[in-house]
Write a structure and sequence with these properties.
One of its GO terms (molecular function) is dolichyl pyrophosphate Glc1Man9GlcNAc2 alpha-1,3-glucosyltransferase activity. This protein is mainly alpha-helical. It is built from 10 helices and no strands. The protein is 68% helix and 0% strand. Helix 5 packs antiparallel against helix 6 and helix 8 runs antiparallel to helix 9.
Length: 198
């Protein structure tokens, strides 16, 4: 039965991924350049300068774990196209290599969403579980914000769902720890802090 569940969730995820791949050439907001610049900042500068660089108007203003995430991605970005991570020459760079690289990193990072929803719904009855999986994996909001506008919210929501799944198991310490990790990625999740405190 668990194998069927995994198979169905993977099918939902694969179908959603196919749609996301079709969205690669779609509209891009300024957040696309923001994240490209953050790749350049974290790749080109020493850690002590990450939060002080003003080469671009898009300064690094997310918590440290997200900066390290961008640094990790920058290692691969340099291999795809070195100009992506060039702090000066890369300003407003929007070649196909940048577009495909950044869009695919968002798609790949959605694996945390897949794992989070899988772990959270593992004890839920099948019909309800499938409904939750479809609603999360196919969320129009995430599709628009992450794969058109350009963000990594699915990645972060996956971590949050993972945290909630541990709370659901009565493993409050690891659930709280994972929530703290989410906060170190994006401070906007602080709105959920009172729930964790209670």
């Amino acid at each position: 039965m668990d194998g069927d569940r995994r198979h169905l969730l993977l099918w939902f995820f694969a179908a959603a991924t196919a749609v996301k791949l079709l969205l690669i050439p779609s509209y891009r907001s300024t957040d696309f350049e923001v994240h490209r610049n953050w790749l350049a900042i974290t790749h080109s500068l020493p850690l002590s300068e990450w939060y002080f660089d003003e080469t671009s108007q898009w300064t690094l203003d997310y918590p440290p774990f997200f900066a390290y995430f961008e640094r990790f991605l920058s290692l691969f970005a340099r291999l795809v196209d070195p100009k992506i991570v060039d702090l000066r020459l890369g300003l407003d760079y929007s070649a196909d290599s940048v577009v495909y690289f950044q869009r695919i990193t968002v798609i790949f990072s959605d694996l945390s969403l897949l794992f989070g929803v899988y772990r959270l719904t593992r004890k839920v009855e099948p019909l309800r579980r499938n409904l939750i999986c479809v609603l999360v994996v196919w969320s129009p909001g995430l599709l628009m914000v992450d794969h058109v506008h350009f963000q990594y919210n699915g990645f972060l929501l996956g971590w949050l769902l993972l945290s909630v799944s541990f709370l659901q198991d009565g493993r409050d310490l690891i659930g709280g720890f994972l929530f703290a990790v989410v906060l170190c990625f994006k401070h906007l999740f602080a709105v959920a802090a009172p729930v964790y405190f209670v």
